[in-house]
């Protein structure tokens, strides 16, 4: 759903120019220093990039899902680290509050998230529960007007930068499964909350993850999302449905950038007296990449429009995440192959993107989890 095409195009043009003139020239610096310069973060705030999906009533742009994925197509045409910084505020770090938060929680936290004053983070994964999220072991025990949280979370995106965490914890020690899990807003300076060392990753330098540890961490009962126990896991699944569609759009944008770089290199690189783009086997890799990107883009736009129409897109979101992330990996591989030896050298973006995009097949639900979700939904629909 596009509410105002002209306004959206102005926003997309501004973001495309920002990516082209500011972010792309700083990709190598971010990769080398593992840090996004503060001046760039300030420009992101000025552009409103931290509040793309947050409602206007709380200071955000309140983009529809179709508008959001079109923005993601543009901002993903550079190092994924830049998008990762703003991604949690627009996705998993804020959407739990947007979807199921109380009015008091929305009024207090969402304007700060939209302005980029604070960074939100989503703490679900644990050492013993990743794909099997319902088996998490972090506990939250009621103690008067507080809950006492104990446990640890692993691989938490933007945790080193975060001011607040949406934390999934078990509030019912007897029940098994999703109904025993609640969601809490936990501020970083809460006594008993600590962070592990920043993880050293294969790629996506500049985007940080680390463990988040809770040791008798006292959280006000008012900070339980939705104001009651037992809705946390449902909140998480709603957040992930939207997040999977967003990541699929990011995969499309990254693939478009890699293909553009590969095409430019193939037209410039000479072998046997002609550009390698003239050779049919190079053309085949370019054509396969173009076709797969077009298919993924079409899938993402269709699913986004369905979500805007209030349809249940759990299956479609998983289809998009599955296809787009796998497609992105194939395009990355072809890009390195087209670059030849240069694709293995760090001064070319192909090498960095090859490592960066590998994560897309893992986080927000692995490829294998998407396959399970899709198949189970198909079976459930057939049994009705």
From TrEMBL:
Domain of life: Bacteria
Family annotation (InterPro entries): Acyl-CoA_DH_CS (IPR006089), Acyl-CoA_Oxase/DH_mid-dom (IPR006091), Acyl-CoA_Oxase/DH_mid-dom_sf (IPR046373), AcylCo_DH-like_C (IPR036250), AcylCo_DH/oxidase_C (IPR009075), AcylCoA_DH/ox_N (IPR013786), AcylCoA_DH/ox_N_sf (IPR037069), AcylCoA_DH/oxidase_NM_dom_sf (IPR009100)
Domain Acyl-CoA dehydrogenase/oxidase N-terminal positions: 7-117
Domain Acyl-CoA oxidase/dehydrogenase middle residues, every copy: 121-217
UniProt GO molecular function: acyl-CoA dehydrogenase activity; flavin adenine dinucleotide binding
Alphabetized Pfam families for the sequence: Acyl-CoA_dh_1 (PF00441), Acyl-CoA_dh_M (PF02770), Acyl-CoA_dh_N (PF02771)
Pathway(s) this gene product operates in, as recorded in its UniProt entry: Amino-acid degradation; L-valine degradation
Keywords: Branched-chain amino acid catabolism, FAD, Flavoprotein, Oxidoreductase
GO biological process, one term: branched-chain amino acid catabolic process
Swiss-Prot/TrEMBL cofactor(s): FAD
Domain Acyl-CoA dehydrogenase/oxidase C-terminal per the UniProt entry, residue ranges: 231-378
SUPFAM superfamilies for the chain: Acyl-CoA dehydrogenase C-terminal domain-like, Acyl-CoA dehydrogenase NM domain-like
Protein name per UniProt: Acyl-CoA dehydrogenase
Organism whose genome encodes this protein: Janthinobacterium lividum
Lineage: Bacteria, Pseudomonadati, Pseudomonadota, Betaproteobacteria, Burkholderiales
């Amino acid at each position: 759903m596009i509410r105002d095409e002209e306004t959206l195009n102005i926003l997309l043009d501004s973001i495309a120019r920002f990516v082209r003139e500011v972010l792309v020239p700083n990709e190598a610096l971010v990769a080398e220093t593992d840090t996004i310069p503060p001046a760039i973060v300030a420009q992101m705030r000025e552009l409103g990039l931290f509040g793309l999906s947050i409602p206007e009533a709380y200071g955000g742009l309140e983009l529809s899902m179709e508008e959001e994925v079109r923005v993601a197509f543009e901002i993903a045409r550079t190092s994924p680290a830049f998008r990762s910084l703003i991604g949690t505020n627009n996705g998993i770090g804020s959407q739990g509050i947007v979807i199921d938060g109380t009015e008091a929680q929305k009024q207090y936290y969402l304007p700060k998230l939209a302005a980029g004053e604070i960074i939100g983070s989503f703490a679900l994964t644990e050492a013993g529960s990743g794909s099997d999220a319902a088996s998490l072991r972090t506990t939250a025990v009621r103690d008067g007007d507080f809950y006492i949280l104990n446990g640890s979370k692993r691989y938490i995106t933007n945790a080193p930068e975060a001011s607040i965490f949406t934390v999934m914890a078990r509030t019912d020690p007897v029940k098994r499964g999703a109904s025993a899990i609640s969601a809490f807003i936990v501020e970083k300076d809460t006594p008993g909350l600590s962070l592990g060392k920043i993880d050293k990753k294969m790629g996506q330098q500049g985007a940080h993850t680390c463990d988040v540890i809770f040791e008798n961490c006292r959280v006000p009962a008012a900070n339980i999302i939705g104001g009651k126990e037992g809705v946390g896991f449902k909140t998480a699944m709603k957040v992930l449905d939207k997040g999977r569609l967003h990541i699929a759009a990011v995969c499309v944008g990254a693939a478009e950038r890699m293909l553009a770089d590969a095409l430019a290199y193939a037209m410039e690189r000479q072998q046997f007296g002609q550009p390698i783009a003239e050779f049919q086997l190079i053309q085949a890799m370019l054509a396969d990449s173009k076709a797969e990107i077009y298919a993924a883009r079409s899938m993402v736009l269709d699913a986004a429009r369905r979500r805007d129409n209030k349809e249940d897109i759990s299956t479609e979101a998983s289809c998009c995440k599955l296809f787009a992330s796998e497609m992105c990996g194939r395009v990355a591989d072809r890009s390195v192959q087209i670059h030849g030896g240069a694709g293995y050298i760090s001064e070319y973006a192909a090498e960095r993107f090859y490592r960066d995009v590998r994560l897309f097949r893992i986080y927000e639900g692995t490829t294998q989890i998407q396959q399970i979700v899709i198949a189970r939904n198909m079976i459930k629909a057939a049994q009705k």
